[in-house]
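yo

u said u wanted the structure for the complex thing, so here. seqs first:
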Amino acid sequence: MHKQTIQTSTNTYDVIVGEGLLTKIEQFLPNTYENILIITDDVVNDLYANKLADVLKSVKHVAVSTVPAGEESKSIEQYYHLLTEAINHRLDRKSLIIALGGGMVGDLAGFVAATYMRGIDFIQVPTTILAHDSSVGGKVAINHPKGKNLIGNFYPPVAVIYDVETLKSLPAKEIRSGYAEVVKHGLISDRSFFEEVLKADLTVPLQPEVTVSHLQQGIAVKAGIVQQDEKESNIRKFLNFGHTLGHAIESELGYGEITHGEAVAIGMLFAMRVSQEKFQIKLPYNELYDWLAANRYPTSIKWPSVNHLIDKMKLDKKSENAIVQMVLLKEIGIPSIINLNDHELHAHLENFIRELG
Amino acid sequence: MHKQTIQTSTNTYDVIVGEGLLTKIEQFLPNTYENILIITDDVVNDLYANKLADVLKSVKHVAVSTVPAGEESKSIEQYYHLLTEAINHRLDRKSLIIALGGGMVGDLAGFVAATYMRGIDFIQVPTTILAHDSSVGGKVAINHPKGKNLIGNFYPPVAVIYDVETLKSLPAKEIRSGYAEVVKHGLISDRSFFEEVLKADLTVPLQPEVTVSHLQQGIAVKAGIVQQDEKESNIRKFLNFGHTLGHAIESELGYGEITHGEAVAIGMLFAMRVSQEKFQIKLPYNELYDWLAANRYPTSIKWPSVNHLIDKMKLDKKSENAIVQMVLLKEIGIPSIINLNDHELHAHLENFIRELG
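structre next:
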C-alpha cells in the first residue's frame, strides 16, 4: 500500500494505491457518514458495487445508482438523473458520494457531488488505469455535444482509494487507453520513467508490482503539478500534452469510436512531431510509435477533415481568444506551451496525417 | 456611489451601489475582456440590455442571451441552453458573463459561469431589491422540482455593480419581495436598522436615498457574515432566517404563485413565533405583522398540508440527517440555530397556521 497526500487550495486528501483496498475501504474514509450513494456504471456495478456496499454495512443508508458504461453517460441527462437519485436517497450536506469506476464515472459523479447542495464530499474509487490520471487533481465535468468536459468544476475529492485488483478485469482496450496517460506522465517529467514505461508489454497480463509502480509514479507527476497550479493558470496545462489534437479526434470521431487514451496517443505523436520541427530537436518519436504499434494502439484512423479538427481545437478550454495552444516538448521532461496560428496548425496537421497514413 | 470590498477564500470583489452606474460600467470592470455574454430575462432585456451592450462597445464581442422572466427559468433546461449559448458565442476561459437582472438571473447566470469550462468570470448587475441579497455571497444555483437551489456552487462574482436607477421599473410585488430580505437583515443584526426599515412605506414610490441606505446596510450585514463563513458551516446559516418555512411554502405552492420575499415574510413571522415560545421572550411580532399587512404582503395564504411542508423543510439544504434546523432569534440581532423534531415542528406549524388564518 502506498499513500500520497495532496494539498489543494480548499482541502487535503490522500491517494492510496494498493491491492485489496476495496474490502478495507472503511478504514480510509476521512469522516463518518450516515448516508452514502455509490455511483457506478453497469459494467463495474456487476463486478464490484455489491462488494463495496457490503463492506459499508455499518453505514445507516447505502444506495447504488448506475449509469450505462461509456463516455456517452457524461451527459446533461445522466447528470440530472443522478442529482434526482441523490435527492430521492435523501442525501444531505453531510452525506458522501463514492465514484466507483473509471474516468467517466469519476468525472460525472464528481460533478454531481460538486453541485449537489453546492457541494458534498466525494471519494474516487478508480477501477481503470486511465483513472490514475483523472481521479487526481479535482477536475470534474460532463461533456457537451460541441466539446468534451465543457461543463464542470474544480472540485477535489476527500480521498482517492485505488485498489489495483480491480484492474484485473480490464479489457485490453482500456489498458491501452490508460497507459497512454502513463506514457504522457513520463514524457512531460522524466526520461527514465518514460523509458521504463516503454518496456511494458500490454499484450500480456499486467504484473501487479510493475503496474503499481507505474501508477504511483504517474500520480506523483500529476500531483506535483496540480499542487502548484490547481486551477490551470499555467503549468497544469502541461498535463494537456497530446490532448489538444486528442480531444479533437475523440470529439470528431464520436466518443466511443476511439478511446480517450488511443486518441491522446495519436495526439502525443503529433505534439512530438511539431516539437521536433518547432525546436529543431530530436525526440524518441519512432520509439513511441513502435511501442504504440506493438501494443496495438490504432495509429491509422479515419481522419476527420483538418478544418473540423482545428475548429474543435479552438473550442478546447485551453485555447484563449480562439488561438490554439499546444503543449510541446523542448526535450523529454521539459514541456512548453506554444500558440499556433491556423496556418501553421493546418500545415503541421496535413503533414502529420499524410505521414501517419 | 458607495463601495464595499468583499473578501472570499478565492478572490476579492467590490460591491458598488449608486445611481446611473449602468452607463459607466466599463470603469468598474476588474479586467479587460474580449468576449462578453450578457445573460438576462425577457423583461429586463427590453429595459436595459441594449443600453448595457451599447456602453460596452469597445469590447470585441458582446452578445445577449435571454431567458423567460420568472423562477421557472432556474431550470436544468435553461441552464443547458445558456451553456450552449456560451459555446456558440465562443466564450473562452478569459471571457466574462454579466448577469443582468434579479435573483433568478444572478443565480442562473452565475451557475453557468461557475461551470462553463470549469468557471469563468462573472459580474452581477442586479436590477431588483431582492438581488441586494442574492448578488452578494457567491451562492449560485438552479432549482430541482423537488427543491429550490438544490443544484449549484459557491462561486463568487468578480464584481457587483448595483445601479439603483434600475429599481424604478420594479413592480410593487417585487419591491415587497426584496424588502423582506432587508427586514431579515435588520432582524438578524440590529434593532435600530430593523426599526428604520419598518418606517418604509412600500405603497408609494421609493425614495432613492432611503433605498440606497437600506440596501447598503443590508449588503453590509450579509457581507459581514459571508466573509466569516463563506461555505455556510455555521453563522452563514443565520441568513436563512425565515427561509426554512419560506422555501417550503414557495416550493409547495409552486414558484411563481408567491414571491420569494413574500414567502420569507411568512417564514419570518413563523420563526419569531417559535422563538418567542422556545426562548420565552417577547419579539416585535405584531409590529412586523402590521407592517407586512400595511404594505400588502399576503399574510393569509392557501396553506399546503403540514406534512408536506415538513417534508420539504427536511429537503432543505440546511437540514442534516433529516432533522430540520431553524434559525431563531434570542433577541433582535442575536440569531441562533436550533434543531426541531417532527413533533415540535408539527405543533408549532399547526398553531401558527391557525393563528394566521
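The mean pLDDT of chain B is 94. Residues 191 and 288 of chain B are 12 Å apart (CA to CA).
cya
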